[in-house]
Amino acid sequence: MARHVGSRHFFQVFADLARGASDAARILQRIFAEPHPFTRLLAEITEVERISAQAQRELVAEIDRVTVTPLDREDVHQLASRLGGLVSLLHDTARGVQDLHLTHTREEARALSEVLVRATGSIEKSVGAFKRPAVLVEQRNEMERLSEEGIAIYDRASAALFSGTPDAMDVLRWKDVYDALEHALTQCREVQNMLSSVALENR
Known about the structure:
With about 200 residues, the chain is mostly helical. The protein is about 80% helix and about 0% strand. The protein has helices at about 5-35, 40-65, 75-100, 105-130, 135-160, 170-200.
């Protein structure tokens, strides 16, 4: 007899992974808003990453054991990998801030992290509306707007680093932070595009 994965369970795990990305983005935003050191916040985002990684592994293992899946098997692997990878990337960004020993924050970093909160929120809405094409199109358009906003902030932030007589090490450290935040936003856009594509293929 063919084994099936219940659709409800399947989409619940995806929802959990998307919520993990939102939680990680909100913690990252707090890291750039609150005074250093931020040991407690880093512990929180590490726990979010651990739970998300476990959920991703369990979903992939279950999909590999069954014969019939709610979506194409490759799509399941790709979506789980992208969602879990986004959480890991946000966690790595937080650890990178700690490793750089930054003693202050910058408005541009706070602004980029706030865009990331909205971007992961958009992904969470898309996962919850997987069977509603109109909502997916709306959220994909929202992600495009957020991507443009993020690029504008990133460009402005990078230019500001070199104004006046900046400290060379400070420039390098903050450039790494801005690059990581911009990369995370790019990943959000790729996840959103994949969600939309898979959902439309399975209407």
